[in-house]
Design brief:
Elements: E1 7-8, E2 12-21, E3 24-31, E4 36-43, H1 51-69, E5 79-85, E6 88-94, E7 99-100, H2 101-108, H3 113-132, E8 135-136, E9 145-147, E10 153-155, E11 162-163, H4 184-187, H5 194-210, H6 220-229, H7 239-248, H8 259-271, H9 290-295, H10 301-310, H11 317-320, E12 357-360, E13 376-377, E14 399-405, H12 420-438, E15 446-453, H13 455-459, E16 472-478
Helix pairs in contact: 3-5, 3-8, 5-7, 6-10, 7-8, 10-12
Protein name: non-specific serine/threonine protein kinase
InterPro entries: Kinase-like_dom_sf, Prot_kinase_dom, Protein_kinase_ATP_BS, Ser/Thr_kinase_AS
Region (Disordered): 319-344
Length: 490
Amino acid sequence: MQQQQRVVANRYTLLAELGRGAMGVVWRAQDQLLGRAVALKELHPPQGIAAEERTVLEERMLREARTAGRLNHPAVVTVYDVVREDGRTYLAMELVDALDLASIVQRHGPRDSTWMAGVALQVLGALEAAHQAGIVHRDVKPSNIMVRPDGAVKLTDFGIAQAADDPRLTHNGGIVGSPAYMSPDRLSGWEASPASDLWALGVTIANAVEGISPFERTSTASTLHAVMNEPPVLRLASPALAQVIRGLLTVDPAHRLTAPQARQMLVAIVQGTAPVPLPRKKNSGRQKNKLVVAGAIALSAVVLAGAAFAGYQAFKPQDTATAGPSTTNSASGEQNSTQWTEASQLPVGAPLPSRRIATFGRGGDVPEWNISGTQCAKDFLTQGSPVRSDVPCDGPHGIQLFSAATPMWDKPKDSPYPGVEWLADFTKNYCTEQFKVIEPKIEEPLGFTGLIPTQKEWDAYQDVTAPGRQEVLCVLWKQDRSPLAGSLVG
């Protein structure tokens, strides 16, 4: 016997479930009154949720309807109706038969730069329409961008959008949005703005063309630290699109690419015309932005530690030549030492000691390094042994990459090698500060090593067949060299 189809508000017949989240379900439905297919979003919070929390969620759904209803743009999903029935709220909207950008990247891998420039142009158009109407989206990310097979794009989920005449909806004064896509100015306590939406668009573009989120880490705290201090590593983006990404990810919102500037550069990529140069502005580097450090007080300890170190990234090699080794006390108990050991040559196969600078890459102590993010590897760091592949961090493993930085991220990639001494000094400071964040959370004694690229590795950055790296790396393990069974970062 066929099950009777559910009908909402005596109008919308539910046909199939399209997606489900913690706070609701999206259905494919048929509008019996107008005879068209729609997407019906049903707010369905979990049992036991507080009445105040439910009210906030309902208001967000209504806000999405009001906000989208004010916009008339082909890249904005149209909202048709809002209904309430049996204590539940439903939002009827345009049905988009398409995958979201996050799913496309997950299924098919990194996107071509020209293709992504076309997608970004459409999202940019939707954002411009919203900004002209006084609306800030506040949650631009791949999962909120639908891409149809014909290439048409729809920006969805204006549920936490902020209008000039609409009060903010937050929890106890918290910031609403996805941490990996929040701009440093928002994390510093500034209001959401068109510039913060453009930052999120830059993160989205980087995610799509590189196949990995540039700032996503294993915990919210480490993600926030990455946003504040770790510029994205761009390996697959075309030079022209990399310029757009870097322009959108300029920390100071006053120096960030504007929508018209980004549009001009993206159009040139799509049309294959001469690249539009990145606008030159004074003091536009990540390290120049004092608002990040000043506003980070409201964030977690990881952001405080990273922001305090951010000043060091305003690098001047002549200023660091006389810097001494770290004297930070360590609870790891390793030889009760607060000093970094000298980088003396070790025999092949010898374990690399803690608080030691070693080289990686072509001709280095670790001749090959192929993991990134906060990935884990099976074997311990030993002199002359490569690290070629990762293993799951929730299973047995020897080491974990707990942080990485690109110290000369805002300089041309053909910049000369800054030298072992300067990179070592930078890395000692950087890894020590990152270890301070993790150390209080771990009961067992830990060791950590800083890895810097060799000059050959550095110079091979733009090698198409085997690109080198211009990063410094911080690697953790258990002091007794016994296997780890879980992530030390999450």
